C-alpha cells in the first residue's frame, strides 16, 4: 500500500493560457492491490472552493490504463508496482 499527500496551487485557463491562482490545492493519493486488482484513490480539495471537492476511485486489472491517468494529471502512478 502507498499513500501520500501533495500540495500545490490551483490553475485556471483564460484565453487558452494556464494561469496559476492563489488557491492552494491538496491531493491525497492511496494505491493498493488486492486479489489481482489495483485500486487507485485520489481525493482533491481546493482552499477557498469547498464546493469543488473531488474524489476518484479507479479499479483496474492491468497496467495499460496508467498512461491515460498520467495524461489526465493524476499523481503517483509510478508508485504502482509492476508485479
Question: What does it look like?
Answer:
Helix content is 7%, strand content 58%. The chain has one helix spanning 66-71, and strands at 2-14, 17-34, 37-46, 54-60. The two termini are 13 Å apart. The relative contact order is 0.23. It contains 1 helix and 4 strands. The protein is mainly beta and 83 residues long. Strand 1 (2-14) and strand 2 form a beta hairpin. The mean pLDDT is 76. It has a 4-stranded antiparallel β-sheet with strand order 1-2-3-4, with no helix packed on it.
Q: Can you count the beta strands?
A: 4
Computed structural class: mainly beta
Alpha plus pi helix count: 1
Shape: elongated
Mean pLDDT: 76
Q: β content, as a range?
A: over 45%
Widest β-sheet, arrangement of strands: 1-2-3-4
Low-confidence segments, given as residue ranges, are none
Largest sheet: 4 strands, antiparallel
Helix content: under 10%
Backbone CA Rg: 14 Å
Rounded to the nearest angstrom, the distance between the terminal CA atoms is: 13 Å
In short:
With 83 residues, the protein is mainly beta. It is built from one helix and four strands, in the order E-E-E-E-H.
Amino acid at each position: 500500500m502507498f499513500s501520500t499527500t501533495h500540495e500545490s496551487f490551483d490553475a485556471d485557463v483564460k484565453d487558452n493560457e494556464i494561469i496559476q491562482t492563489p488557491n492552494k490545492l491538496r491531493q491525497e493519493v492511496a494505491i493498493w492491490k488486492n486479489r489481482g486488482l489495483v485500486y487507485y484513490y485520489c481525493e482533491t480539495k481546493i482552499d477557498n472552493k469547498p464546493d469543488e471537492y473531488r474524489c476518484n476511485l479507479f479499479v483496474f486489472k492491468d497496467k495499460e490504463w496508467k498512461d491515460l491517468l498520467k495524461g489526465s494529471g493524476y499523481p503517483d502512478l509510478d508508485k504502482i508496482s509492476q508485479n
